């Protein structure tokens, strides 16, 4: 399942929509604190794709040793600025910065990452709001590749707030209707559990965890893991062995990563609509 191709389709369709509306700028703002190299690359890619989608983007960068007050005032300024529609605070923040206090400052309409407690609460309550981009990207990938979810057994490996927990909610909610099991590092006999699944979403951050013996013939395997090893950047899925068994599989890179960006940009246009800054 080719995430790059789908991301390009999403970006092109957003661009068309924005150009057709000949609308004042749709604006995504990012906040990056510190000098984490992968985060710098992720944020740069988000800006590049925002521009390709016909959006404007703004970037605020703070030093590794920025204080809590400095980070919070940067976010507060973007929250108060009517020309900014989406705010993304790149995680992780440096140790010592209270993440929750920072996220609490993002209004739910501008929370295009869907990570604040209000957005998470809305997802749980089934109310309109932004959904975290990575699990949303996985749903879009399954949907666009015609992977049936209704009545199917899905196993999500990993219980992060960024991916695993919202993924369980999205797969299980009405309209998607999968029967979902949440597995994690303490799950007994993970391989046997996964062999019963029609869909495996690996989001544990454990390099090469999912091998061919986890996968029943024709199952769908989605890799959300990312680990930096001596052999380079690898996912949670041992692609070479699993592709022999799976009916559909995402590559790493080029699978769920680009879909995260595609969904971030969709959320940003939705944010502009929620704020009344873009026609419905
Ligand atoms: N760090 C890794 N993935 C993400 C993401 O989707 N959003 C944010 N804000 N930080 C991340």
Strands, total number = 10
**What's the Cα radius of gyration?**
19 Å
**pLDDT averaged residue by residue:** 97
Class from helix and strand fractions: alpha/beta
Q: Outline the low-pLDDT stretches.
A: none
Percent range for β-strand residues: 15-25%
Estimate percent helicity. Answer: 25-40%
How would you explain this protein's 3D organization?
This protein has helices spanning 3-20, 37-52, 68-80, 99-103, 117-125, 133-144, 164-172, 190-195, 239-242, 256-274, and strands at residues 27-33, 56-62, 86-89, 153-157, 179-183, 199-202, 220-223, 227-229, 232-234, 248-249. A 5-stranded parallel beta sheet has the order 5-4-6-7-10. It has a 3-stranded parallel beta sheet with strand order 2-1-3, sandwiched between helices. With 280 residues, the chain is α/β, with parallel strands linked by helices. The protein folds into 2 domains: 21-109, 3-Layer(aba) Sandwich (Rossmann fold); 133-257, Rossmann fold (3-Layer(aba) Sandwich), CATH 3.40.50. It binds guanine. Guanine binds next to β3 and α6. The site of guanine has 9 residues, from β3 and α6.
